[in-house]
Amino acid sequence: MSDIWIEVRHDDSCMWQLKGRTWDEEPKLDVLQEVVDGYIEFVPNEYLSHDVIGMIVNEEGMLRQLPVNVLATQQLTMAASQPQGTPRIVGNAILKVDEEFITKDYWFRGEEE
């Protein structure tokens, strides 16, 4: 498998049924800004789960009170915990992952159906 960039919208409810776009290469700055609806910010790698290679969010998302992105927030580790509360990702996000990450088999590996 190879690495891909995926759009995780704030209203997505399932990692293997995302509504957004995917890219084989890092999208250009104008596309990144369009997806997150503003200036971009890279989430520090130490805050990302081992399955996520990179994450880009709206730099002013909290100030603009964008809606919480539950799926993107679930990709943070406990290292992201802060005294002021549980960290969260707001607005649309772009994640760099292995393309297997967005398959149902990936999320249900090892489980009996």
Question: What report would you give on this structure?
Answer:
- The protein is of the alpha+beta class.
- It has helices at residues 29-36, 70-73, 104-107, and strands at 3-8, 22-23, 40-42, 52-58, 93-98.
- The chain has a 5-stranded antiparallel beta sheet.
- The model has no long low-confidence stretch (mean pLDDT 89).
- What Rg, in angstroms, do the CA atoms define? 14 Å
- As laid out across the biggest beta sheet, the strand order is 2-1-5-4-3
Order of helices and strands: EEHEEHEH
**Backbone structural class:** alpha+beta
**How far apart are the first and last residues' alpha carbons, in Å?**
24 Å
Per-chain topology:
Blueprint: E1 3-8, E2 22-23, H1 29-36, E3 40-42, E4 52-58, H2 70-73, E5 93-98, H3 104-107
Antiparallel strand pairs: 1-2, 1-5, 3-4, 4-5
Features:
113 residues, alpha+beta, five-stranded antiparallel β-sheet, 3 helices, 21% strand, globular
Short description:
The protein is α+β, with helices and mostly antiparallel strands.
